[in-house]
Design brief:
The structure is a single chain. It is globular and about 40 Å long. It is built from 5 helices and 9 strands, in the order βααβββαβαβαβββ. It is 28% helix and 35% strand. The termini are far apart. The strands form 2 sheets. It has a 7-stranded mixed beta sheet, with helices on both faces. The protein has a two-stranded antiparallel sheet with strand order 7-8. The protein has 162 residues and is α+β, with helices and mostly antiparallel strands.
């Protein structure tokens, strides 16, 4: 919940499960992508994996298959009270392993040009920038998005070989 203090917990007992019911995870998914319409659209075709600890929702990610050997990490989010403790890294590691197990050879992820922390997060995990969809956020989002005083206009795609 917003306003709750962060607390330190162990990630060793994190439980991952493929989701049939996305509703409990929707608030987390909307942290990473503020368009409920777009989120619901890719939930229809993607594979969603939720992470919990002691029956408490910690995080979620969504993978989409795009073709022979290519998967996209469409959304990844960690509960605000759990951020900064390695849960995002653990979710990303699980997403990479899941993509690899399905036979994907490459994993792609897109994030906004203003998402400086997210760009750093993915690059530290071995992703490299490979293309830009100029104006993506202007075309697909009704309300302007600002992060760190920068307007989010372009989608930056990063790739990682598996």
């Amino acid at each position: 919940m917003i306003g709750e203090p962060k607390r330190t917990v162990s990630i060793d007992q994190l439980l991952f499960e493929i989701l049939d019911d996305h509703e409990p995870y929707l608030p987390l998914l909307l942290l990473a992508d503020p368009s409920e319409k777009l989120v619901r659209d890719y939930l229809e075709t993607g594979v969603s994996v939720g992470a919990s600890l002691n029956e408490e929702i910690v995080g979620v990610y969504v993978l989409l298959l795009h073709g022979e050997g290519l998967m996209e990490l469409k959304n990844i989010a960690v509960a605000e009270t759990m951020q900064g403790q390695g849960f995002g890294r653990r979710l990303l590691e699980h997403a990479i392993a899941t993509a690899r197990q399905t036979g994907a050879r490459t994993l792609e992820v897109g994030t906004g040009n203003s998402s400086l922390a997210q760009l750093r997060f993915y690059e530290k995990a071995g992703f490299r920038r490979h293309r830009v969809d100029s104006g993506f956020f202007l075309r697909h989002y009704e309300q302007p998005i600002f992060e760190d005083g920068i307007q989010c206009t372009d989608m930056i795609f990063l790739m990682r070989d598996l």
